[in-house]
Amino acid sequence: MPEPDAGTIARKSEIVAALQAVVPGEGVIFDAEELAAYESDGLTAYRQPPLIVVLPETVEQVSAVLRYCNEQKVKVVPRGAGTSLSGGSLPLADGIILGLGKFNRILDIDYDNRCAVVQPGVTNLGITKAVEHRGFYYAPDPSSQIACSIGGNIAENSGGVHCLKYGLTTNNVLGIELVLMDGTVMRLGGKHLEAEGYDLLGLLTGSEGLLGVVTEVTVRLLRQPATARALLLGFESSEAAGDCVAAVIAAGIIPGGMEMMDRPAIHAAEDFVQAGYPRYVEALLIVELDGPEAEVDYLIFRCSEIAKAKGAVYERVSKNEEERAVFWAGRKAAFPAVGRISPDYYCMDGTIPRHRLPEVLRRMRELSEHYGLRVANVFHAGDGNLHPLILYDANVPGELERCEAFGAEILKLCVEVGGVLTGEHGVGVEKRDLMPSMFSEIDLKQQQRVKCAFDPDHLLNPGKVFPQLHRCAELGRMHIHRGQMPFPDIPRF
Question: Which numeric CATH code is attached to 106-223?
């Protein structure tokens, strides 16, 4: 992480007083014991108490806080619910945490235009709960949807079990209100479906808090499908299950969701939820088909045929909505369930081409033996998004370091077979130093030029995403101060 600025830390009392003038009452936290609650996010292996935490309630307060920090050159780390698994909201010793937890209201539900306007602190599941009585829902559904906030979903471009058919956050966000580092408030998109010009909305979605702070979001609402049924398929090997995934997609079938768990994850989830999963199989697929009833019946039949041809040894179809929910409950609870069988685990996130899944599973097994660490695998199998859970004990000297090395090898493997470093968890600090395995120096510098356009002093979430941060001047940016161009005698074309 960047070396803390001693001068900023020495000015803590002055900064606290200035922020209290903007956010009165209990909106500024600076006591050491109270700051401990913010010292990490979902990637708990890394911890660092922030200098100060600020909890604004209005857009005007957010703008004033950022303007002050920009003028005083104080670093800012935006934070939603803190469920990030890549260290995206890891604090800085010389920076403030800008928490958006008080931005938790649904501002408008427009059923005619099938969209809702919400504040960034609204939980992912909260949107669906607000509209389900009218037969609508919000499609992206990360496993942490009961807790994660929609602002954080935008920062990481979150997905979920149903993103195969209905897309990631970027496919379901129509507009945002954004506050830049200098305090400028701007709007991108809205209730309309498309806009002319550069796709700045797409640029901001997945920008991991490096470009601005989202204060309002317009999301797309979808109609609940007429019918949705889940199919459980068990296989004697993970490779056979991987072959089945590729065959289903190759047959032109796009399930609403297509998830995979291996034996350790199956047993952990079954012990935790009692979903009725078969314990004797090595891999389990959950395939959800939705749409008109006749179409769903046909697709279940086709998927069953494909699965049998690929060696399925277990099949079960949900009989009603309650049973379908139970099937998914086991998958949704897989992460906490694995926490019951190991003192610690490291949740990875990489994406590969679907047809390489059997090969990647085989090589991951070899890596597991090499590093001497067990792995429980949970996959968004339909879109190739892998979530290997590496089991370790942080109290055993050297085991965390061995776990990190194992995880790095998995992510490099994803890139090697034509995939990417992250599918939905983001880069943060976890994958930052692996970025050169996927991007060239030219690629990374071009990305940093975008960063410079929004945040020229690198005050927003520094230390994340980029393995080596260049000053904007080093990237060819020309700064014109008070209308005076530097070196005016140099010819320009």
Answer: 3.30.465.10
